[in-house]
Design brief:
- It is built from 17 helices and 70 strands.
- By secondary structure, the chain is mainly β.
- The strands form 14 sheets. The chain has a 16-stranded antiparallel β-sheet that branches. Strands 28, 29, 31, 32, 34, 35, 36, 37, 38 and 39 form a ten-stranded antiparallel β-sheet that branches. Strands 1, 2, 3, 4, 8, 10 and 12 form a seven-stranded antiparallel β-sheet that branches.
- The radius of gyration is 36 Å and the shape is globular.
């Protein structure tokens, strides 16, 4: 046997820092020196996922999981490495399962930092200061540099070993070795033993990294991206399924329909298209580390593409992408342009760059940190200048990897990574390392994606919401994905483009140039001046970064280079996120952060470091313990005192649950103290159910009903001292949970069977998915489950794998259905399916024991190796009674309805209740009956006729007179004369028609619905809603069916509007405070009245629920009153949802279903003949008008491709501009385009993506209003443009651009004053020329032309008076004369977010679920993320 230490030591040194080599795996490398080496345990080169739970090829991922049996051992010298290898040899000699996996040697040794240094940063990674305050989430004052734990601590039984006090703090980290153990016990012992070796500086767990993609978005596209690709294959038999999905865009709702090349919105957002024609100075290599690459895809480069993979069965070859994530990210960077197909990337010309692919993740979307680091090193070795990494894990700092990324940075490589999809303040790696750029995600509106992770390392933002790009050809070639994964390649592509144009700039300078030129995001509550944790420094802007580097050079744009003479490295310049600007400054402007709360920053040009000017940052501590002190940078500074930006908010201690007592803040400590004790409602009576009402703090007592619903027991009663007392079942009764001597399985299967089956009938089990999740409940006996029969429908030539998990308790409660870590695996077994209509029987290796009167949840699903192709695998039974209804039962067991599973992970659920199609085999263990059953059991047979009844005898009512006593004179009413001057006033009777949510609901922005009266007159006096952070509502009514009046704002009358400043809070059933009351609406008998309720604030909306399919609006009763009610059988129909704010009265598209509004109406009775119904307000008028700027009689005649000019509305009413008449130089057919933007075309905000350059369209702020061919009339005559519709509000300015590709517009030079034309309402200002028309960018000029011209032509417009006229200008409305405005693309349908009822015990939670954070990390992922059922959407 060859001595392991010598052979392995030599081999590891030969590896020279390769964690997992590109050409050979560690096993081969270690075995080359001697054939006798037993490498049998080195079976895998990397660890991928969990061996018990293969990664889900369709599942969104943000994992916190350690690769639990893989260790990273950092050493300080060659002798330390030798000690590690000798230790492994000794351990293996003792029979321990320890394996050497590889060695990664740092390019330059790193000295371990001293213990007096700065605190931990937000991720628990070492800070770089010299003491004092630690970073957010770190150790605080006096913090250590030792990241002993990731944020929140390490998992149980796992630890990092660091230097202890008294040890030599001057050791160097030379490299690290990867070891793998066979079990957790060995791992724990190795953590301790390796940490004690001389020359070992750190021992830590490897981590699992996964793609940073969000698969289950909240909104319509959740179904597009996840369900559509597999559900549509089900066929017509699924038509009744409660699933609905809407397209990303109304004009292209099928990704499989490819008509022409598409420029995804993200490419325009990063402002890059005008740079494509500029020749770069060098070719650049871009490395994409991900799940692989579909080599040969017609829209992706093939020539010159190289790659690396781990040569293991888990990862497969780099040129195969079994997942699709890697191909999608590569397409965003470099999809080929100009081929009239597919999409384009940030760099669409493959002759200007090349790809190198690192397959660090497997086709499941996950992989070990060691594999990813090996891919990083290979990218560096192959000459890549930019690395794109759309992957990571939460709270998983690894010191060894931190140094490896610094090595790559020191080699001049710019590393870009996804910020993560937690949707909350958390730490994510590798984006959390300082040498890595962390990229947040924004939507098409440029506002933050709800899932984007927030922390101090967030550096820059890019589009990541519904991004269209390439996917493998076997997955339809193109697809839409969401996540910070999609944002990352936008930044990587921009970085690579800048490197190709400015090769003399180092990677840190390119990085700084991008943040110095970033565009300010839209103004919202998250966006602060300068840096913030949401957007970082802003939105990446290729055009502005290019201009900055071109004009200012590498140092002016990106700061100083490291001082190599002083030993400074590039990685020393990298601080990342909010601190990235701190190092390398050369001017004060490079230090400016825009956030005055952080104080004034200046540059120390001696040290090239930014510093804070003393006294400029406010100290907001007011010394009061019961206030929360913050700084608001948007507040003005008064009297030069920065403290005027401070905000002191009283600390609230009340949870508004009056049952919990009353609390207040202790002014001495700042802690919440109890002033009034909690309410005690226990009355000591066992036969009452005691409850405290949270709103009032009052006790409520309900009599306990004692009935076990057993057909064979009688005389159940309640004893106030002991509770329910149940009598034993009578003998010889079928249903007494006892197989009596006179019974057998045929005569009494309910008592004598040892199995229970729902149905295998394919006519009943009509739906097909991957599996079921549901509850079974036991009755009065202990039951042991021994196996199941699964309705598996795979063909017999296809091997499936049955997965069975179980959980004590309800599968749906507390989100159990998606939190896999709570479940216990029963089996995972290969099966050959029996087929449709037959049982595929599976025995459990260990039985599942369930106590009597217990609920046990089961998740049973069947997968294959290629589940996306083989879907579906099992059949299921639709059941409308609800998820927890009893579907089948016998004397011992109930099988309850649950949900179908359509995810390859097994952990998601169909909203429509689905019963399990299959059987359970069980044994009754304990025959003793219970005396305290906790379940309500549905009897399967009628109770015996001799059972006691509480119904009184039929003749009992006759003992009571049916009329009033005769002692009361019948003629007494006549004593009141009919001509009385004070008749009895009519007293209306109030009736409420309400429906309230339970469990979950959808947020409605606006909703139309109908109300139909019964046979009685009724007056509607108020409207109730259920709130979801609602702040502003408007209610409109119209007589007749709403379907006739959608899109017609002038046909509706406002009857109520909420008061200013109202806060409806979360999940509150309220009659809102109406500003001027609720104008009552009278309904005649059988009349239909329509209502439109719209959320007009910036909040979410009101709550409702899906009631039907597409096109069924107004056809079903959402709620109704019985005909015996005081107002008769009033019916409220479900309705059609719509948009709000600037899109009032616009209904959602045809892809949306019918929805009912929670809450309802308050009505009162009326005297017959009351006809004072309100009349509809008359249609508000429009006043057509025109303003002409005639052809000038003097001045130099000029002609251009186009003109830009501003139009001011100087009047007091809004104007609708509908067309222009323009002055062409020549006659003939000319193509013309009309564009507009808000504000002036001159100047521009310094915070915009194109400061001072509003005249070009680099920021995508211009909108094309109309285009088409016109018959130009030539000089001296005006030619009409195509019609459009633009509203110009009173006292505002709108800029217009009129351009022609093949024609010239004639004008005259003029002064600003002589070019101005003032009308009664509008003013036309002087114009500037466009003589370099450049498509959607309008022009490429960087300065507005200084010469002024006169626009010659006519503006056609109308003045609108009143709100309905203003709304009518929108293109989706019907005008008062019945005409329709022109059709336009509606764009993305509005998302309808599903929300959940507050948890029991906190019913008045004023904040509700964090809709912009967790839950909602993109769907369930082993407990990380929120309850996303995937198809619970509008």
């Amino acid at each position: 046997m060859v001595n392991l230490s010598k052979v392995a030591f030599a081999a590891l040194l030969l590896l020279g820092g390769v964690g997992v080599p590109s050409s050979i795996g560690p096993r081969a490398a270690l075995a080359q020196e001697g054939d006798e080496y037993d490498g049998g345990d080195l079976q895998r080169d990397i660890v991928v996922g969990d061996v018990d739970d293969p990664g889900d090829p369709t599942e969104p991922v943000e994992s916190n999981a350690d690769v639990s049996n893989t260790l990273l051992v950092t050493y300080s010298s060659d002798s330390g490495l030798s000690n590690i290898i000798n230790h492994v040899e000794e351990a293996r000699g003792k029979g321990k399962g320890v394996m050497l996996k590889g060695n990664n040697r740092y390019k330059s040794p790193k000295r371990r930092p001293g213990r007096s240094g700065g605190g931990l940063d937000g991720g628990g990674q070492p800070g770089g200061g010299t003491g004092g305050e630690g970073g957010k989430g770190g150790n605080g004052k006096g913090g250590s540099d030792n990241p002993k734990a990731r944020s929140g601590g390490n998992s149980k039984g796992k630890r990092n070993r660091w230097l202890e006090a008294g040890e030599d703090e001057g050791e160097l980290d030379v490299g690290f070795v990867t070891l793998e153990t066979t079990d957790g016990e060995t791992t724990n012992s190795e953590l301790s033993e390796l940490g004690g070796l001389e020359g070992v500086t750190n021992v830590e767990h490897d981590v699992e990294l996964t793609v940073a993609e969000v698969k289950s978005l909240r909104g319509a596209n959740a179904a597009n991206e996840h369900v559509r690709e597999i559900i549509e294959a089900m066929g017509a038999e699924q038509a009744g399924l409660n699933i609905e999905y809407a397209p990303e865009h109304e004009d292209d709702h099928d990704d499989r329909r490819r008509l022409a090349e598409d420029t995804p919105y993200g490419i325009n957002h990063v402002n890059v298209t005008h740079l494509w024609s500029i020749e770069p100075q060098q070719h650049v290599k871009i490395c994409v580390i991900d799940t692989g690459y579909d080599l040969g895809h017609p829209d992706l480069p093939s020539d010159g593409v190289t790659g690396w993979d781990a040569h293991s069965p888990e990862t497969q070859s780099w040129d195969v992408d079994g997942h699709s994530h890697g191909t999608h990210c590569a397409g965003t960077i470099g999809a080929i342009g100009g081929n009239d197909a597919g999409v384009v990337g940030v760099m669409p010309n493959p002759s200007k760059f090349s790809f190198h692919i690192g397959k660090g993740l497997s086709d499941s979307g996950s992989g070990s940190g060691a594999a990813v680091i090996a891919a990083v090193k290979d990218c560096v070795d192959k000459g890549a200048k930019v690395i794109s990494m759309s992957l990571g894990c939460g709270n998983c700092y690894v010191a060894a990897y931190d140094q490896a990324y610094k090595d790559a940075y020191d080699a001049g490589v710019l590393i870009v990574a996804a910020a993560g999809n937690s949707g909350r303040d958390s730490v994510h790696y590798p984006s959390g390392y300082k040498s890595v750029i962390s990229v947040a995600s924004v939507m098409e509106s440029k506002k933050l994606s709800y899932f984007s992770t927030r922390n101090d390392q967030t550096e820059i933002a890019a589009p990541g919401h519904y991004v269209k790009s390439t996917v493998p050809r076997n997955k339809e070639s193109y697809g839409t994905k969401s996540g910070t994964s999609m944002a990352c390649p936008h930044v990587a592509g921009v970085a690579a483009l800048l490197v190709s144009h400015f090769p003399n700039c180092n990677n840190n300078q390119i990085r700084n140039a991008m943040i110095h030129s970033a565009s300010e995001p839209p103004t919202d509550s998250l966006n602060l001046p300068g840096w913030d944790k949401y957007y970082g420094w802003g939105l990446v802007n290729a055009g502005m970064a290019y201009e900055l580097l071109k004009n200012e050079g590498c140092i002016g744009a990106g700061g100083a280079a490291p001082d190599e003479a002083a030993g400074e490295k590039l990685s020393d310049m990298a601080l990342g996120g909010k601190d990235q600007k701190t190092n390398g400054c050369t001017t004060d402007s490079q230090c400016q952060n825009g956030n005055l709360c952080l104080g004034e920053m200046k540059c120390n040009t001696d040290t090239n470091k930014c510093y804070q000017v003393e006294g400029t940052a406010p100290d907001c501590d007011d010394g009061v313990k019961c206030t929360i002190d913050t700084c608001d940078p948007t507040k003005p500074i008064l009297n030069n005192d920065p403290k005027s930006m401070c905000v002191h908010t009283p600390k609230t201690c009340e949870d508004e649950d009056k049952c919990n007592g009353i609390y207040s803040c202790d002014p001495l400590t700042g802690n919440c103290q109890q002033d009034t004790p909690p309410v005690d409602c226990d009355d000591g009576m066992a036969c009452t159910i005691d409850k405290c009402i949270t709103d009032t703090g009052q006790c409520q007592y309900t009599q306990k009903m004692c009935n076990d619903n057993n057909v064979c027991t009688f005389g159940d009663k309640c004893d106030n001292s002991t509770g329910c007392v149940f009598q034993p079942p009578v003998e010889d009764c079928c249903g007494n949970a006892q197989c009596d001597a006179s019974e057998d399985e045929e005569s009494c299967p309910i008592d004598c069977s040892d199995s229970i089956t729902t149905s295998f009938d394919t006519g009943v089990a009509r739906h097909r998915y991957l599996g079921s999740v549901f509850n079974i409940a036991t009755k009065s006996k202990n039951v042991t489950i021994a196996g199941v029969g699964v309705h598996c429908i795979l063909p017999n030539d296809k091997v499936g794998k049955v997965h069975v998990y179980t959980l004590g308790g309800d599968y749906y409660g507390n989100g159990n259905w998606y939190k896999k870590y709570r479940w216990t695996k029963v089996l995972e077994q290969d099966v050959t399916c029996a087929g449709a209509g037959l049982s595929t029987n599976v025995s459990f290796p260990e039985v599942v024991k369930i106590g009597k009167n217990k609920v046990q949840a089961f998740s049973i699903y069947v997968l294959t190796d290629n589940i996306m192709t083989d879907y579906p695998t099992t059949r299921h039974i639709p059941h409308s009674a609800g998820r927890h209804a009893v579907y089948k039962e016998d004397s011992y067991v109930q099988i309850r309805t649950g949900s179908g599973n359509f995810c390859a992970s097994g952990w998601c659920a169909i909203l429509t209740p689905m019963a399990y199609s299959g059987s359970f085999n069980y044994v009754v263990v304990d025959d003793s009956p219970t005396t305290h059953p906790t379940l309500s059991m549905k009897p399967t047979t009628p109770p015996p006729t001799n059972s006691p009844t509480s119904t009184p005898p039929t003749d009992s009512p006759t003992t009571k007179p049916t009329h009033s006593p005769t002692s009361s004179p019948t003629e007494s009413p006549s004593a009141a004369p009919s001509t009385s001057i004070a008749p009895t006033a009519f007293q209306p009777e109030v009736v409420e028609m309400l429906t309230h949510p339970a469990g979950w609901a959808n947020i409605l922005r606006a909703v139309y619905f109908n109300v139909t009266a019964g046979d009685e007159w009724a007056r509607i006096t108020d409207l109730q809603v259920v709130t979801c952070r609602t702040t502003s509502l408007q209610v409109y009514m119209k007589r007749g069916n709403a379907a006739t009046y959608e899109n017609s704002p002038c046909d509706w009358t406002m009857v109520a509007e909420t008061e200013d400043g109202w806060d409806g809070r979360y999940w509150k059933k309220v009659y809102p405070p109406w500003k001027n009351g609720f104008e009552s609406v009278v309904m005649e008998p059988n009349e239909t009245v329509s209502f439109y309720v719209a959320n007009t604030g910036s909040s979410n909306g009101i709550l409702g629920k899906r009631t039907g399919n597409r096109g069924t609006w107004y056809k079903s009763s959402w709620t109704k009153l019985d005909s015996t009610s005081a107002v008769g059988a009033v019916r409220m129909a479900d309705g059609r949802t719509g948009y709000n704010n600037e899109q009032l009265f616009k209904p959602h598209s045809k892809y949306y279903s019918a929805y009912g509004m929670y809450g309802g109406l308050k009505m009162e009775t009326m005297q017959a003949g009351s006809t004072q119904a309100p009349t509809t307000a008359p249609t508000e008028p429009f006043s057509p008008d025109a303003l002409t700027s005639p052809v000038a009689e003097s001045g130099e005649v000029k002609d251009f491709n186009g003109v830009q000019f501003d139009v001011d509305n100087t009047g007091d009413d809004f104007a609708i501009i509908t067309s222009f008449d323009v002055h062409f130089k020549s006659t003939g057919s000319k193509h013309i385009e009309v564009w507009s933007r808000s504000g002036s075309h001159k100047g521009g905000s310094l915070g915009s993506c194109s400061p001072g350059q509003n005249f070009n369209n680099w920021c995508n702020e211009w909108k094309k209003l109309a285009h088409g061919n016109v018959d130009a009339q030539g000089l001296g005559k005006f030619t009409a443009t195509p019609e459009f519709s633009v509203a110009v509000k009173a006292k505002t300015t709108v800029a217009f651009a009129i351009v022609s590709q093949n024609g010239r517009l004639s004008t005259h030079s003029a002064t600003a004053s002589s070019a101005t034309v003032q009308g009664s309402h509008l003013r036309i200002n002087d114009a500037t020329c466009i003589d370099d028309y450049y498509g959607s960018n309008l022009q490429t000029s960087h300065e507005v032309d200084s010469t002024r011209f006169k626009f010659e032509g006519t503006i056609n417009y109308a003045i609108g008076y009143g709100k309905c006229a203003y709304l009518s200008h929108f293109p989706w409305t019907r005008l008062p004369n019945g005409a329709s405005s022109m059709d336009i693309d509606e764009g993305d349908p509005e998302e309808a977010i599903m929300v959940y009822e507050p948890e029991e015990g906190d019913p008045d939670d004023e904040d509700g679920p964090p809709l912009d954070g967790s839950p909602g990390e993109g769907g369930p992922s082993d407990g990380e993320g929120g309850p996303e059922e995937g198809v619970m959407y509008q």
